[in-house]
Amino acid sequence: MPEEVTAVPAPDPPTPSPRTALVTGAGSGIGRAVARRLARDGLTVLVTDRSPQAARHVRDEIAADGGDASAHVCDVTDETDVRALAGSVADRAGRVDVLVNNAGLAERPSTFEDQRPEIWDRVLAVSLHGTRICSREFGTRFMLPTGRGRIVNITSVAGLVGVPRMHAYSAAKAAVAMFTRTLACDWARHGVTVNAVAPGYVDTPPVAALAATGDLDVARLRARVPVGRLGSGADIAHAAAFLAHPDSGYLTGVVLPVDGGWTAFGDAGDAHREPLDTHPEKP
Fold first, then answer.
1. Cα gap 73→57, rounded to integer Å
2. DSSP code for 231
3. E strand or H helix that includes residue 257
4. Is the pLDDT of residue 276 over 90?
5. Residue 9: which of 241, 281, 253, 249 has the closest Cα?
6. Could you say which of 49, 75, 103, 169 is catalytic?
7. Sheet holding 98-101, edge to edge
8. What is d(CA 12, CA 232) in angstroms, rounded to the nearest whole number?
9. Rounded Cα gap, residues 15 and 142, in angstroms
10. At 139, is the secondary structure helix, strand, or coil?
11. Do residues 33 and 61 lie in contact, with contact meaning Cβ atoms separated by under 8 Å?
12. How many whole angstroms from its chain centre is CA 72?
């Protein structure tokens, strides 16, 4: 009889402490929440944003909480800018253990025939190409040579299901989800995991702006979410921190919806109504 072989999983290489995380689009919203959560978890955080004021503000918030952070200005759509930031990080921090590709852009909802080409191009440049550029620069420079690393991409439920009048945003986020899976397959052998969080509707300034213009009915939206509320930045940050953890080395290529059950709900109308009794008791 053939000899039974028991496979023993290879452990990840030991991770020096403290780890360093770089978060793009960290000046507000989900990025800010992720940066603050990772800092509370003991990581040194490189707060990156197009706005120097926003980046410094989040850096100062982290410092006030007792964390370690620095502020950096970068346009993720500009390869030269990202390359320069990677060089600066190499000179100062010397490492990036976790990359959170959060920077993204959504257009104002419109019909497809009314959407301007430059809006389409800009949304894809930030959400999709920015993720590609940062993954390449920081992954190849800091993660592949060390045999370890965590990349967490922020996509959206709009990239998993059809959301009317959000054509560019949905296309970009769907592409990020598939990019997550393909890069995960390529880099797993190097000890680098690549996963994504797909938030549902989160209580952030962009969502508030859509509600203010009448482009989003928050009451109807909340009724469609089984848990009965919009998400918070903390909800998304918790998931990102889990995927970024050193113990998550066997988890890669995952696109994790964090949406209060929004994508799971397949019925029509209100998710909170009492279910119909399809088997009433006979008298």
1. 12
2. B
3. strand 255-258
4. no
5. 249
6. 169
7. 69-73, 44-49, 20-23, 98-101, 149-154, 192-199, 255-258
8. 32
9. 13
10. helix
11. no
12. 19
Rounded CA Rg of the chain: 21
255-258 vs 44-49, strand pairing mode: unpaired
- Residue 45's nearest CA partner among 19, 69, 13 is 69
Could you tell me what percentage of the chain is helix, strand and coil, using 3-state DSSP and rounding each to the nearest 5?
45, 15, 40
Q: Which residue reads 């007792």 in tokens?
A: 66
Query: What six digits make up the tokens of 242?
Result: 């889990």
Q: Tokens in use for 258?
A: 């964090």
Please choose, from the candidates 164, 129, 168, 157, the residue with its C-alpha nearest in 3D space to the C-alpha of residue 239.
157
* DSSP state at residue 74: -
Residues 235-253 pLDDT 10s: 999 999 999 999 999 999 9
**CA atoms of 11 and 4, how far apart (whole Å):** 22
Per-residue model confidence (pLDDT) at position 167: 87
- Average of pLDDT values for 68-84? 98
Domains, the chain, with CATH or none: 20-258 (3.40.50.720)
What would the pLDDT profile of 149-188 be if each residue is shown by its tens digit?
A: 999 999 999 899 988 777 889 999 999 999 999 999 999 9
| CA–CA gap between residue 276 and residue 282 (Å, rounded) | 16
Report which residue type is found at 103: A
Beta strands 69-73 and 44-49, pairing class = parallel
What CA–CA distance (Å, rounded) separates 223 from 221? 5
- The pLDDT confidence band at residue 30, using thresholds 50, 70 and 90, is very high
DSSP secondary structure letter of residue 34: H
Catalytic residue status for 250: no
